[in-house]
């Protein structure tokens, strides 16, 4: 199994796009439709450029932390705004590299396949054929280091965006395994480890200044999480969810 296949297996969702000349020249990476959906599924939507939105990226290769933004760029001639990832993110990438964004629940990961100085397609083949079978993310991250010193074929594995795991765990506990959407309350399915599967949704989005705090999160079933983002009733669902979270926090003396 190749590294990319293993990455796909470790993630709930993966979307890849080749870094174009335009991405680098604009100094802003333009995610494709699949990557935008993936980002939205993790709770991230582009904001207006005037807003400050920071995604934290830990470069697994150098150990360096850099910042990215995710914003809608206004365009002339009546064209629709374009979602872009800016700041240090675009500078982190090079033309011809393949950027794989991965989502595991609400965590984002990125793998970049680099091949500076030689044919890109060859590099992907080499990577796919290499013996990285069955490695988990931790092993992959460690493996990245061992690939250093081979500048023609480099892999970067990075965790993008950190969220407080305690807030997440607390929301799941508060829910007692049931979706917190009042008109749903379905019990999450049982995971391999015996716990219930629920997704943690930030009511007031982090990108718009919302807090990563128990007062601002709800544990939702996968359907309701998609509903609050995409449903025609999204606004009213959000209103009833806010009330339900407030009540639940009072009941549990949380906030
Ligand atoms: Zn639900």
Averaging pLDDT over every residue, what do you get?
A: 76
Task: Characterize the biggest β-sheet.
Answer: 8 strands, mixed
SS-based structural class?
A: alpha+beta
Got a strand count?
10
What are the bound molecules?
A: zinc ion
Topology (elements, then pairings):
Blueprint: H1 3-10, E1 13-18, H2 21-25, H3 33-41, E2 47-48, E3 55-59, E4 65-73, E5 82-87, H4 88-91, E6 98-104, E7 107-114, H5 120-129, H6 137-146, E8 154-160, H7 165-175, E9 199-202, E10 217-220, H8 222-230, H9 234-251
Parallel strand pairs: 2-4
Antiparallel strand pairs: 1-6, 3-4, 3-8, 4-5, 6-7, 7-8, 9-10
Helix pairs in contact: 8-9
Bound molecules: zinc ion.
Question: What does this 3D model show about the protein?
Answer:
There is one protein chain. By secondary structure, the chain is of the alpha+beta class. It folds into 2 domains: 158 residues; 87 residues, no CATH class. The chain is built from 9 helices and 10 strands. Helix 8 crosses helix 9. About 12% of the residues have low confidence. The structure holds zinc ion.
